[in-house]
Amino acid sequence: MNDLIRPKRIVLGITASIAAYKAADLASKLVKSGVDVYPVLTAEAARFVGPATFTALTGHPCPIDTFDEPFPGEIAHIWLARNCDLIAIVPASMNCIARLAHGLADDMLTATVMATAAPILLAPAMNTGMWNNPATQANLETLSKYGYQFIEPVTGMLACRTEGVGKMADVVTIEAAIQSVLRGSQPLSGKHVLITTGPTREPIDPVRYLTNRSSGKMGYALAETARRLGAAVTLISGPTALPAPIGVQTIPVETAREMMNAVQAHVQTANIIIAAAAVADYRPETISPQKIKKNGSAPTIALVENEDILAWIGKSKRPDQTLVGFAAESENLLANANKKLQGKNLDWIVANDITAAGAGFDADTNIATLISRDGAQTPLPKMSKREMAERILVAVSPIPPAL
């Protein structure tokens, strides 16, 4: 069959993780969508789920050893490498990531990866300590430089009965990422997306500061999604507990003035600017060089107003730039959001009622209304922040509706 009309073909690699069982569900969904799936297990992954499962789901043999030759007259790993449109490794273990970063080809999966020119997509899954290990982060950065794409793990309950980052992304998210690559292009390729996120901290003395409850989760979800869709992403982040997204230029800042300086340094090259940060409106007029001690009376702290970063961008942006703001409100949601939209020259605004269950600070879900410059309103019911990030990016940029 001519490559232009044959079904899209992927190599689905499965490595050693308790999340390996989810790869069977993924394989089934992909096959039902018309994708031709060729499964490849590592020997360790076969201890979690057997090759017979994937052969039954995909209709193709599931080789493990480099010397397995299930395709008559062909060298299996070379045939797979040359004839696939994508290699997706789901889950990708810490060990697999390390071997790929160092160019090892000691089993069927890594040999196939090393021989291919196709895009490579990894969905990491591991313990939080393993994910945060400097060696893992260095290996991920190396693979990112090589052009590997990633579906970031999420925070959740892990197999070790602890909660933290490292849980593999859900199958729906992974399938959407695979389908996006298979459509033949990344819709934000060639675009620069600038995102601000998190709180700012305005110091009072060496140990105290003014801040807010922003976790940065929405901004990080936007950065990860924009990167997955092919954009060059700059993330200017106030202090958060979140790991820097893979393949994203992350610039840590503390204060509103530091965030303003970072924005001014990067805004000119941005096509889309998303201001999701919760920037402090005020800062102390003076900062005590020493810790303020109790002396029987509460100190008086004079405040001065910070420069409005969003308003500055709105005044200085070019017609070819798209500016998206956020409005976190506790009352009169739509009225306040529309006032901000018009007053700061935004193209779009995401209005959040922070009092709604599932939409407040630190939540993994969000509820919002997306409002355009012409007043059109799109309700975004309760959904994960990752899904909302996709919905926002689809609306504000030239992305086809189906991710």
Summarize the structure.
The chain has 403 residues and is of the alpha/beta class. It has helices at 20-32, 51-58, 76-83, 94-101, 108-115, 128-132, 134-145, 171-182, 217-228, 256-266, 309-316, 333-343, 385-396, and strands at residues 9-14, 36-41, 86-92, 120-124, 149-150, 154-157, 163-167, 192-197, 202-203, 209-210, 232-237, 249-252, 272-275, 282-284, 303-305, 322-329, 348-353, 365-372, 377-384. It folds into two domains: 9-182, Flavin prenyltransferase-like (Rossmann fold); 192-396, 3-Layer(aba) Sandwich (Rossmann fold).
Explain this structure to me?
The protein has an eight-stranded mixed beta sheet, with helices on both faces. It has a five-stranded parallel beta sheet with strand order 2-1-3-4-5, sandwiched between helices. It has a two-stranded antiparallel ribbon with strand order 6-7. With 403 residues, the protein is α/β, with parallel strands linked by helices. It contains 13 helices and 19 strands. The model is unreliable at 1-5 (pLDDT under 50). Strand 9 and strand 10 (209-210) form a beta hairpin.
User: Any low-confidence stretches, pLDDT <50, length ≥5?
Assistant: 1-5
User: Architecture of the largest domain in CATH?
Assistant: 3-Layer(aba) Sandwich
- So how many helices? 13
Helix content: 25-40%
Largest sheet geometry: 8 strands, mixed
What is the CA-atom radius of gyration, in angstroms?
A: 24 Å
Residue share in β-strands? 15-25%
Strand numbers in spatial order across the main sheet: 12-11-8-13-16-17-18-19
Structural class comes to: alpha/beta
Mean pLDDT reading: 92
Distance between the termini: 27 Å
* Count of extended strands: 19
The CATH class name of the largest domain reads: Alpha Beta
Q: Tally the structural domains.
A: 2
Output the CATH topology of the largest domain: Rossmann fold
